[in-house]
Here is the input.
Amino acid sequence: MQADLERILFDEATILRRLDEIAAQISNDYRDRELTVIAVLNGSLVFMSDLMRRIPLPLRLDCLSVASYHGRAETTGEVIFKQVALPDVVDRHVLILDDILDSGHTLAFIREKLETAKPRSVRVCVLLQKKKERARLVDADYVGFEIEDEFVVGYGLDFMERYRNLPCIGVLRKELITQTN
Ligand code: IMP
Ligand code: MG
Here is the structure.
């Protein structure tokens, strides 16, 4: 799998060091509040699991399943919920976790939907944020790393459902993306 990478951006130790920092920041910001983490599946699974165990606060976890990529390397802009019921967030302090902020469609959609369910507050935490102009305006409150506008895989992020189990994050070789499209 690692041979399919053009280059590695962040190895496991670097990712975990950064998670220590973000977790400390989140723990401090929510120290007197009960937090509800909402993880966007499947991409944020690995990130959520490592981050959550670094936050020594009482917290609840809910997961949401959405799809926007339909197995391609470009967003279509259309986001669909794969489950019907939204988690109960009335009066809760919600922290949405996602793997990557790219066009912004996914997080803007999720944020809007959750806000209709009357939470007390909503913040967004992403492991990666691409440096680019976004189709939808979304501000992430916590960002692991800023990256260039390249297609990356590993540490939960996939290409056609592969590479999620790579422990590092890297840029996928371009010919692998064009081949399958
Ligand atoms: P957005 O709606 O365009 O912001 O895209 C968000 C979703 O697209 C993320 O949750 C990822 O699942 C996926 N995505 C965006 N960029 C990448 C990438 O570089 N590698 C893998 N998945 C990505
Ligand atoms: Mg995702």
Q: What stands out?
A: Residues 125 and 159 are 22 Å apart (CA to CA).
